[in-house]
Amino acid sequence: MSFRYPPSMRHLINELSKLPSIGEKSAARLAYHLLAKDIPLARSLASSLVEAAENTKLCVHCFFLTEADACSLCTDGQRDRHSLCVVEKPADVFALERSGGFRGVYHVLHGVWSPLKGMGPEQTKMGQLMSRLSRASKGEAQQDDPLQEKPSEMILATGATVEGDATALYLANVASELEISVTRIAQGIPKGGDLEYADELTLNLSLEGRRKI
After folding, report:
1. Is there a domain that residue 60 lies in?
2. Confidence class for position 143, pLDDT limits 50, 70, 90
3. Which of 206, 124, 213 minimizes the C-alpha distance to 159?
4. Most buried among 1, 48, 96, 212, using CB within 10 Å?
5. Do residue 73 and residue 176 come from a single domain?
């Protein structure tokens, strides 16, 4: 008879293995630790997961993570409203904030243009980005936007992948008529690499060496 995990543990392993970078062996080790060695941690983790899932939502302005309507970055009066950095996912915002090299505002796309994976502009927040830039370029944001945004530069900080390149080119072309300077972070990020895992120095060099598209 082949070895089998108890049904509840098997279910936990299956769920953990759905997380990024977690294979079945790693999921099994995590499950064993939670169930056999640290029951209070397991209960606390379960409670935290439910709390985060129920309370966390997307910022109405930039689509970063928040528990209020607007995130702490958008409501920070010290941020530079003339500089808008476009990233693929919330984790990229955390990475750039850790670097300390950017003090503007963000727009999180929640995906990139990848036709082979069924991801087009409609499946991301690209449309909302274009609306945001269009309102600002027409001066409408000065009238009805409490954040008073007036971006003069859009920094494209998508990953150095084929999909990231295609997304950056698409956004640059669409934004070309809005009289907003469009730049791309320098390719200090390794080709095929992911912004989320870059170190602070590489991120700072990438921001300083950004170029027009």
Report:
1. no
2. very low
3. 206
4. 96
5. yes
Q: Are residues 18 and 109 in the same domain?
A: no
Residue 84 and residue 49 share a domain = no
Domain count, the chain: 2
> Which amino acid would we find at residue 120?
G
Q: Give the range of the structural domain holding residue 92, as residue numbers without chain letter.
A: 65-212
Q: What pLDDT score does 89 carry? A: 95
Residue 89's nearest CA partner among 169, 161, 22, 27 is 161
pLDDT digits (tens, 9 = 90+) for 72-103: 999 998 999 889 999 999 999 999 999 888 99
pLDDT at 40 over 60: yes
131 with 33, same domain? no
Annotate the chain with three-state secondary structure.
CCCCCCHHHHHHHHHHCCCCCCCHHHHHHHHHHHHHHCHHHHHHHHHHHHHHHHHCEECCCCCCEECCCCCCCCCCCCCEEEEEEEECCHHHHHHHHHHCCCCEEEEECCCCCEHHHCECHHHCCHHHHHHHHHHHHCCCHHHHCCCCCCCCEEEECCCCCHHHHHHHHHHHHHHHHHCCEEEECCCCCCCCCCHHHCCHHHHHHHHHCCEEC
